[in-house]
Amino acid sequence: MDDRRTWREVTLHPEKSVSRRTWLASMAMGIGLVASYGLFAIQGFLFLLPRRLHPPTRRLFAGSLDQFKMDTLQGVLDLQGNEILVKRDRQGLRAFNSTCPHLGCRVHWQADKQRFFCPCHNGVFNDNGVAVEGPPAAAGQSLAEVPLDIDHKSGVVYLEVKDMGKATT
Ligand code: FES
Q1: What is the pLDDT of residue 2?
Q2: Where are the domains of the chain?
Q3: Between 52 and 127, whose confidence is greater?
């Protein structure tokens, strides 16, 4: 029996008897080829896929905890210069993107009415950032909440913000 037949010979002339060793070598080569092409295809897909699924973020220093007084709201700029509104009340500390989800105007906090207001089309958001009046309410939109983290040991507040600089490199 000839153990030195190549995979090509085995494929082109299957009627000839094939040894177990040749058959195993051919199978191993075939599996290796399928695995390597599969991994190549997956890597190519991940390379082409925009980073929308997992947008890069960065931990941004927002300030010390005692700097955010009860029942007040403070603006913090993110890495793109957009204002993040950090609000402290009985529910705790929360942060909202100040960009209106309707058409992108800047919302501001109205302390006397305890609401966010967008002057472009009179959009109103309650203190949880949920739209209650105007076009954003009709569309069921809310202000995007920005994740924040409080390091209670050091008393420092961090925001988890999008890092578009990482996305382009
Ligand atoms: S952009 Fe804010 S309500 Fe239209």
Answers
A1: 53
A2: 7-48, 57-167
A3: 127
Sign of CA pseudo-dihedral 133, 129, 140, 54: positive
The domain 57-167 is classified under which CATH number: 2.102.10.10, 3.30.70.920, 3.20.20.80, 3.40.50.1240?
2.102.10.10
> From ligand 1's centre to the CA of 106, what distance in Å?
8
| pLDDT for the residue 81 | 87
For residue 100, what are the CA distances in angstroms to 57, 76, 132, 144? 21, 16, 13, 9
Q: For residue 124, how far is its CA from the centre of ligand 1 (angstroms)?
A: 9
Give the model's pLDDT for residue 55: 72
102 C-beta closer than 6 A to ligand 1:
yes
pTM over the 0.90 mark: no
What pLDDT is attached to residue 168? 43
